[in-house]
Amino acid sequence: MTDVVAFMQNYGSALVLISQLAVLAIATKFVTRTDHERAISSLDAKFVRSVEKIDKVEDRVAALENEFRHLPDRGSVHTIQLSLAELKGEMRAMGEQLKPVAAISERLQEFLLEQANRR
């Protein structure tokens, strides 16, 4: 027993220092239960917020897809462009065909004005 007491007297401070370093090392490597639960609850809250954001984005994408479903596709737009170009050409041709009718209308109006002035 005297050997143990002598050993403790000689190396007690070193043993205390080593044990304190061991406790410090363990404390830095591991967390307490409350810190762990706080971290988990924080992560859970972040996860829930992320899921809510994803749900909102999915709803927005679904709404956009629904809107785009009503829009014409590339082929339909091309067909409409061709039809408009064809109509534009037909309108030009009709304009040229209506020029003689406009001239006749002007001559008829002048004739009627002359007849009205003679009376």
What would you say this structure looks like, in words?
This protein has 3 helices and no strands. The chain has 2 domains: 1-30; 32-118. The mean pLDDT is 89. The protein is rod-shaped, with a radius of gyration of 47 Å. The chain is an all-alpha fold.
Defining traits:
mainly alpha; 119 residues; 92% helix
Short structural summary:
By secondary structure, the protein is mostly helical.
Q: What's the helix count? A: 3
Structurally, the number of domains stands at 2
SS strand fraction: under 5%
Number of strands: 0
Fraction of helical residues: over 70%
Mean pLDDT: 89
Q: Give me the Rg, rounded.
A: 47 Å
Overall shape: it is rod-shaped
Distance between the termini: 155 Å
Strand/helix succession: HHH
Content-based structural category: mainly alpha
Runs in which pLDDT lies below 50 for 5 or more consecutive residues are none
List the helices and strands and how they pair.
Elements (H helix, E strand, L loop, with lengths): L1 H28 L3 H37 L4 H45 L1
